[in-house]
Design brief:
The chain is mostly helical. It folds into two domains: 64 residues; 151 residues, f41 fragment of flagellin, N-terminal domain. 67% of the residues lie in helices and 6% in strands. The chain contains five helices and four strands, in the order H-H-H-E-E-E-E-H-H. The strands form two sheets. A two-stranded antiparallel sheet has the order 1-2. Strands 3-4 form a two-stranded antiparallel ribbon. Strand 3 and strand 4 form a beta hairpin. Helix 1 packs antiparallel against helix 5 and helix 2 runs antiparallel to helix 4. The radius of gyration is 40 Å and the shape is rod-shaped. The mean pLDDT is 87.
Length: 279
């Protein structure tokens, strides 16, 4: 602050000092008002260059993690659709096995066996319909074509999960198509039951694989939610304003603003005292 003598009137140094102080206070008040209005401590890179850079990186990571969380959720949806289809197929195969065992009743004649064969044929057709209809976003899930699908499940390049629904469960793969009454009698019945056991085993194995993947995704989902919360908390500590502190600061500055204004007025009137020397 410049020193001034009250007997020099050409340059009112006292008024200039008071004006500089008032301008500085006004600038600080403007800064705190912006923070209170926006809720942010950093409203431009100039406020805190290092903090601004760090917070923007944290915000970018948070948004990346949020999208990864969405990917995990969609992957779970896909697997849930596939699981539902497989459960239906498993129920159908179990029902077919029940009918095959029913056909092993020696008291049944040709008409009863023919009726069972017809029912089994309809059930096998339904297996193929389920395979055809189980899809997600246009992609069929149970025809062994949904394989090696990579899902981004994190914010970094290596945070991926590969999903393959590769089990072949078409009814033709178990020698069950074209069943007739002869396949439900004698030693042929044992062969048919063995084919059904193979089909059921393959479906349940795929269901086990899907269940394991969903379990992994549950863990990833929980981990991502925690990471998002912690990342946003870290960014908030840097970027967000402490409203209570800002209000205290602006109250103090407003009081100083009033006193500075009074001092500026007094400094402007001080040169008039020199006129008393000419009385």
């Amino acid at each position: 602050m410049a020193f001034f003598s009250g007997s020099r009137i050409l340059t009112n140094v006292g008024a200039l000092n008071a004006l500089n102080a008032l301008n500085s206070l006004n600038s600080k008040i403007g800064t705190h008002q912006m923070r209170l209005a926006s809720g942010r401590r950093i409203n431009s890179a100039a406020d805190d260059p290092a903090g601004y850079t760090i917070s923007k990186k944290l915000q970018a990571r948070s948004r990346s993690l949020s999208q990864a969380l969405n990917n995990v959720g969609e992957t779970k949806n896909i697997l849930s659709v596939a699981e539902g289809g497989l459960q239906n197929i498993n129920d159908i195969f179990v029902g077919i096995k029940e009918k095959v065992i029913q056909a092993g009743n020696g008291s049944y004649g040709s008409e009863e066996l023919a009726a069972i064969v017809t029912q089994i044929g309809d059930m096998l057709d339904e297996v193929d319909d389920v395979i055809s209809e189980t899809s997600f976003n246009g992609s069929k899930l149970l025809n062994a074509n949904f394989t090696s699908k990579v899902f981004q499940t994190g914010a970094s390049g290596g945070d991926t999960l590969t999903v393959s629904l590769s089990a072949t469960i078409d009814s033709t793969d178990f020698g069950l198509n074209g069943l007739d009454s002869s396949d439900l009698q004698g030693s042929a019945l044992s062969t048919t039951l063995s084919s059904l056991d193979t089909a059921i085993s393959r479906v349940t194995t795929e269901l086990q694989s899907i269940g394991s993947l969903i379990q992994r995704l549950d863990v990833k989902e929980s981990t991502l939610q925690s990471a998002i919360t912690n990342t946003e908390a870290a960014a908030s500590r840097i970027m967000d304003a402490d409203i209570a502190k800002e209000q205290l600061e602006i109250t103090k500055l407003q009081i100083l603003q009033q006193t500075a204004t009074v001092q500026l007025a007094q400094a402007n009137s001080a040169p008039q005292n020199v006129l008393q020397l000419f009385g």
